[in-house]
Amino acid sequence: MPISFEKAFSIHDDAMIMRARRSSILASNIANTDTPNYKARDIDFKAVMRSMQQPQTGDRLALASTHRNHLSTANSRIDAAIQYRNPLHASLDGNTVDSHVEQAKFAENALQYQTSFTFLDSKIKGIVRALKGE
Hints:
With about 130 residues, the protein is mostly helical. It has one domain. About 55% of the residues lie in helices and about 5% in strands. The chain has helices at about 5-10, 10-30, 45-50, 75-80, 100-130, and strands spanning about 40-45, 80-85. A two-stranded antiparallel ribbon has the order 1-2. Helix 2 runs antiparallel to helix 3. The longest helix has about 35 residues, at about 100-130. It is elongated and about 65 Å long. It starts with a helix and ends with a helix.
């Protein structure tokens, strides 16, 4: 019986791609805390994961591939989902970054990334044990 890695890994491989991209966006927000007129950005996780699980439609042409790793549309879908964050407090210099909010979201994202990584690691170890007959 063939092993389906797509079924074995579920959505966690896509989640790790999205979490890594979100981590760099949040780090950019933190780095620009004191930059005048910098606008904080973030990704809506649920919206991105929903779009990754469905073929692209609408005004964009859906690409066909023979293998899911041949043409990766994950990054283009993530880039399309980046949104500006509404600030909790007005800033005189036009900066919308609240460092406490960004640090909390960065820590939460890192924890969720680690969770997906741990899940995938256990799945891979299980597959290896099954292949070895243990």
